[in-house]
Amino acid sequence: MAPSLRDLQLTRVGGGASKLQGAQQQQQQEDEDVRLLDAYDVETGGGQPLLFHRIQIRITGMTCAACSNSVESALAALNGVVSSSVALLQNKADVLFDPSLLQVSQIKEAIEDAGFEAEVIPDSTNTKSGAPPNDTLIGQFSIGGMTCAACVNSVEGILRALPGVNRAVVALATSLGEVEYDSTIISKDDIVNAIEDAGFEGSLIQSNTQDKITLNVAGVLNELDTRFLEGTLTNLKGVRQFFFDRISRDLEVLFDPEVITSRSLVDGIQEGSGEKFTVRVCNPYTRMTSKDLEESTKMFRLLTSSFFLSLPVIFMRVVCPSIPPLYALLLWRCGPFLMGDWLKWALVSVIQFFVGKRFYVAAWRALKNGSTNMDVLVALGTSASYFYSVCALLYGAATGFWSPTYFETSAMLITFVLLGKYLETLAKGKTSDAIKKLVELSPATALLLIKDEVGKLTGEREIDALLIQPGDILKVVPGTKVPADGVVVWGSSYVNESMVTGESAPVLKELNAPVIGGTINLHGVLHVEATRIGSNTVLSQIISLVETAQMSKAPIQKFADFVASIFVPVVVGMSLITFFGWYISGVLGAYPVEWLPENGNYFVFSLMFGISVVVIACPCALGLATPTAVMVATGVGASNGVLIKGGDALERAQSVKYVIFDKTGTLTQGKATVATAKVFTEMERGEFLTLVASAEASSEHPLAKAIVEYARHFHFFDEPSIPGLPQNSLSGWLLDSSNFSAVPGKGVQCSIGGKRILVGNRKLMLESGISIPTHVENFVVELEESAKTGVLVAHDDVLIGVLGIADPLKREASVVIEGLVKMGIKPIMVTGDNWRTAKAVAREVGIQDVRAEILPAGKAEAIRMFQKDGSVVAMVGDGINDSPALAAADVGMAIGAGTDIAIEAADYVLMRNNLEDVITAIDLSRKTFTRIRLNYVFAMGYNVVAIPIAAGTFFPWLRISLPPWAAGACMALSSVSVVCSSLLLRRYRKPRLTTILEITVE
């Protein structure tokens, strides 16, 4: 049995107490595991525990060993750092520190002061709910008004600078920000205020606190009803605060979950109003969807307003000259200007300052915070065109010299930009379809069975599924969805779990069988006891995982962020160079007057080129190139049973050179069965099996369970086993054992009847001083050469028998291995099993490189050996003993049926327990980053091709120019092209490995 990860392998601490150093030396001698923990207690001399925290920080910018040494020196100089190590190849720092002396923000600042970028890697193993310890909360905020990557950088910078904020990530594609903050230092209202002070719209969507609920209250019709609702809430014990929005009818309640539950709160409001009020729990994801719809609706209104106001302006410019009566009306002088000029000025002023107000507001916010974005360029370009036209009119009225006006340029420019933003909003909504589909899997309501004090069923009631509590007994009728994770307490039925696990075959659910919320009950009626609700359910964790991945940034995006941060000043500079270049050249007579427009001048001629450059070079598409593709890819992966934990993991997988497989439970089915049992003494076979089963009954190892099951069947004890209960509580035939202990990687030992029993491998026997006779060794060798594991049994220091245990290979194992070879990836097997068994299994699946008899820490070392030349290594495993290797690998892939700890340590989770998904994960990564590179071509291609045209480079020879309105259309088209390109990933079909092992597309 592999030891638990809750035991931490201590690293050397300079200047520590001798007791601590002695513990370290002892741990270093036992190098079975690489232990992972955030915090552990060390006893000080006075008996008071000294609490240390361990964090991992992702560092950007390291290029050589000198860089990593520089970071290590900066960390070592901090008072409170116990130990630190910096991995150059992984771009990570592992820091052990005393939180009473040092804060996480100070560690980050030290790294940044050394010249590098630092980001704390969140670790969801801190608490059961995945929330950081102590008073640290994670809040998800909606951020409105962002238009490009420069806005994202501005908001992230403001949030990260706030006191108490440990981490902040902002996603342009979803208009969301995720902030990890210390609630004792800063509140969510402070964060919202900071977002709004920066010039954006901010609101909290949800957080990992469990004492807040948002309800929609129907039936509140007037002020009297509102006061009655407030009085009802005031009288409910446990209600701390509440806020009722009279327009949306949404009620936010902050309550003490130990005093009142969410269901009691809803019941209290309804009963207190005499059932006049109908209360419904608001799903945060549904609220997000409605916000997206509201944003697209608002953008559509602006677009249609701009379009219909622009039509008359274009009509007057293009069509009216060919219609004499209308043209004569436009030429009618009304005061100092012509009627046509008055109409254009009025219409375009509405477009410029009412429809286009959002661009001015956003541009002012950006400039106020010392940043620049797309809105600055749009405001600059449209203002130049509009105010020039106004000045031209005023100058003409004053002097009688009428220059041409360009009101239609400003109007069309705003219209095309709004068209691009509207199409972009619609397309971005499609990228989050994966989240919406996952949310829709969960049913809206549930049937709660009501029981009296003695447990007798008295009735049932329909409740909101979000109000289910642990311990509730729920009735699931055929054809409906299971409302929450739980266990069957009555009934029998088949359940379709394909939407969660990917397995198409229905699964039989009987007494004590676990069920997953969101799966469909097919046949019989089930009574299910809810065990996990809310964020702890499997479906919620999948949604959270996909959401976190979509929030993350792939390393390739840093290039786009950097370019976006300097792009606007560069574009403005290019525009000024273009304008002055044409203007000065015209004044100096470098080009003929015939090039000027009718009644035009050098200033107007140069200004149009300058405006076109400003508009065509907007960097908004650049900021969308990576996040939209990552969002779609993570959604597609989830629908194919592959959960991806972040953009960095998605990017690394495309470069995988080695894939290291664990054997048991990964290449094999993990369902070990005893194939043979041989006794080498006079002991009866039944007595031998009883001894072995009694020794293994206390072990959780798969081999131990297989031995107990085999012995039970031998004795004809066919009563069903109950998970979680020791066998000797069910079966009187097992003998009582004492002094039980599991020896990691070797076996178990205990005492039965005062005599020592050893069950394990050769190492356990030899280290315990028990000799292995030649004939026994030969028998074990035969087992191992036939891919069976030989388990030796010693009683009273005498070897008495051997069990041969077989673990069948997964049917797809050999096909997947050959498929990886076809993709140019080298498969390797690393296992703790003996060499002969390992080689037999490797030979059967086609793996050439085998590492056997490797302890858990050795697996991680083997991975580091392959990483020495810079190769990207993936690890596929399922057990607790695989988690150090999964954490050490560049890309960790956990089989979904494996342990929770293995899944936490991995970058990918293969939900279907199918090895073909290893190929799917790598192939999806390659396809995604091919798409991202294409997105960059779309994002930059328009600029590279169109900027020279917009600047008039080809005008002297070809008389080709790009009017500002056309430049606006191209700019809008670039954003839409990028998002639509990413959406094409939704058509992804995973590779199908045929019998001839040609990787084809279904």
From TrEMBL:
A GO-annotated cellular component: membrane
Return one GO MF term: ATP binding
For this protein, the parts annotated as crossing the membrane are 307-330, 342-364, 376-398, 559-582, 602-625, 936-958, 964-985
* Biological processes per GO annotation: copper ion transport
> Record keywords: tRNA processing included?
no
Coarse class of the protein's main subcellular location: membrane
Q: What InterPro entries does the record point to?
A: ATPase_P-typ_cyto_dom_N (IPR023299), ATPase_P-typ_P_site (IPR018303), ATPase_P-typ_TM_dom_sf (IPR023298), ATPase_P-typ_transduc_dom_A_sf (IPR008250), ATPase_P-type_domA (IPR059000), HAD-like_sf (IPR036412), HAD_sf (IPR023214), Heavy-metal-associated_CS (IPR017969)
Which UniProt keywords are given for this protein, alphabetically ordered? ATP-binding, Copper, Copper transport, Ion transport, Membrane, Metal-binding, Nucleotide-binding, Repeat, Translocase, Transmembrane, Transmembrane helix, Transport
Cellular compartments annotated? Membrane
Check the record and name the CDD domains matching this protein: HMA, P-type_ATPase_Cu-like
| Start and end residues of each HMA domain | 53-119, 137-203
Q: Which domain of life is it from?
A: Eukaryota
Q: Which family does it belong to?
A: Belongs to the cation transport ATPase (P-type) (TC 3.A.3) family. Type IB subfamily.
| Protein name per its UniProtKB record | HMA domain-containing protein
What is the native source organism of this protein?
Kalanchoe fedtschenkoi (Lavender scallops)
